[in-house]
Design brief:
The protein is α+β, with helices and mostly antiparallel strands. The protein has twelve helices and ten strands. The chain has two domains: 98 residues, Phosphorylase Kinase, domain 1 (2-Layer Sandwich), CATH 3.30.200.20; 237 residues, Aminoglycoside 3'-phosphotransferase, Chain: A, domain 2 (Alpha-Beta Complex), CATH 3.90.1200. Bound molecules: 2-acetamido-2-deoxy-1-O-phosphono-alpha-D-glucopyranose (GN1) and magnesium ion.
Length: 354
């Protein structure tokens, strides 16, 4: 693996240049993340994927708005924004690349899957806390860092387009996943109706479990990370992506579908953690859609992996040719598992709300 942080990057910051020991970090699909370890202090260095995030200044603006607001609202809240360069910007452009440097949080750890319901409680509480703290921030000044990012109606159109354009062999290989996408189309229609009435809130839009740091020993929530899609959206996005990634013992890359089921005790922990911060913020209508949030995000992620497979895997990096198809089947399987356990899950939600 080639590791390439430009040496000159450090000169843009008030960080005395050191002989950094650089390693690749994180399991994210889109940006490139490194840890630069020094004797006294370490940093997380990240190269923004400019093909996906075409407007770094929109990210810059949203993060600044949140940071200023949060500093006022709760000065002790750890908001892990990039550190400022000498020009006072979060982002540093070198040649045609955009770089950020974040403080390295040594007591924090990020997981790809969970092994204790307490972790689900703490992580969900941490993301719930962010939504809660930002509930009063003026939305009008925020930019969409990726336009219509979680608009399922648009994602479905993109899927139909991909289906029309896909070569015959790919369509045949994906027949099962395509059938599942069409069979669950109701989710698109429900979302289409909900977006007319649900309130807009600042959402993180990528609340997967690897995007929150928990304390190494106690598992207490330390801070959320990956703030590039912090922008207005629906509560469905943040709650839903937690359901998508906290409940199964295996992640989206697992290919043995027999292992893909949800753990109800983790669902309970997740809901209680999230609602401990959000119960008095959510509207009555939002509270009727808590289970739908998970279905919505699982369906959308399945559709995105499937569309990408049909288009020749141009968005999500893969390690073998069928990977995005298998990721899609994995997510459809998890959706199925939610549908099968729907009654119990609704009962758990009911208990958490009363
Ligand atoms: C991508 O880059 P990463 O891994 O944080 C994607 C998310 C998906 C996720 C699926 C900008 O996030 O929307 O949910 O993969 N981010 C973008 O694992 O598309
Ligand atoms: Mg991300």
């Amino acid at each position: 693996m080639e590791i390439a942080i430009p040496e000159i990057l450090w000169e843009f910051y008030d960080i005395p240049s050191k002989n950094w020991l650089v390693t690749k970090a994180g399991s994210g699909h889109i940006n490139e993340t490194y840890i630069a370890a020094g004797n006294q202090q370490s940093w997380v260095v990240q190269k923004l994927n400019h093909r996906v995030f075409t407007q770094p200044e929109a990210i810059e603006q949203n993060i600044r708005l949140c940071q200023t607001y949060l500093q006022e609202k709760d000065p002790n809240y750890l908001f892990l924004a990039p550190i400022l360069n000498k020009k006072g910007c979060y982002t540093t452009k070198i040649a045609n690349s955009y770089w950020r440097i974040f403080p390295f949080i040594s007591e924090g750890i990020a997981f790809d899957t969970l092994s204790d319901p307490k972790q689900a409680y703490e992580a969900a509480k941490k993301f719930g806390e962010l939504s809660r703290l930002l509930a009063g921030v003026p939305l009008a000044q925020f930019k969409e860092t990726i336009p219509a990012f979680h608009d399922l109606n648009l994602r479905f159109k993109q899927f139909e387009q991909a289906l029309t354009e896909a070569p015959k062999e790919r369509k045949e290989a994906a027949a099962e996943a395509i059938a599942m996408a069409l069979a669950n189309r109701e989710i698109v229609d429900i979302f289409g109706k909900l977006k007319k009435t649900l309130p807009l809130r600042i959402q993180h839009h990528d609340t997967k479990i690897s995007n929150v740091l928990l304390h190494k020993k106690s598992f207490a929530g330390v801070c959320v990370i990956d703030l590039d899609t912090l922008m207005p959206g629906y509560f469905l996005s943040d709650l839903g992506d937690m359901v998508r990634t906290y409940l199964c013992a295996y992640d989206e890359n697992e290919t043995d579908l027999a292992k893909i089921t949800i753990r109800e005790d983790y669902f309970k922990a997740l809901m209680s953690g999230y609602l401990s911060k959000m119960a008095d913020i959510l509207t009555a209508e939002e509270k009727t859609q808590l289970l739908f949030a998970g279905k919505f995000m699982l369906y959308m992620q399945a559709l995105r992996f499937l569309s990408d497979y049909l288009q020749g895997s141009i968005y999500y990096p893969i390690f073998y040719p069928e990977q995005n198809l298998l990721r899609s089947l994995n997510q459809f399987q998890l959706l199925q598992s939610i549908v099968e356990k729907e009654k119990n899950l609704e009962q758990i939600i009911h208990e958490c709300l009363t």
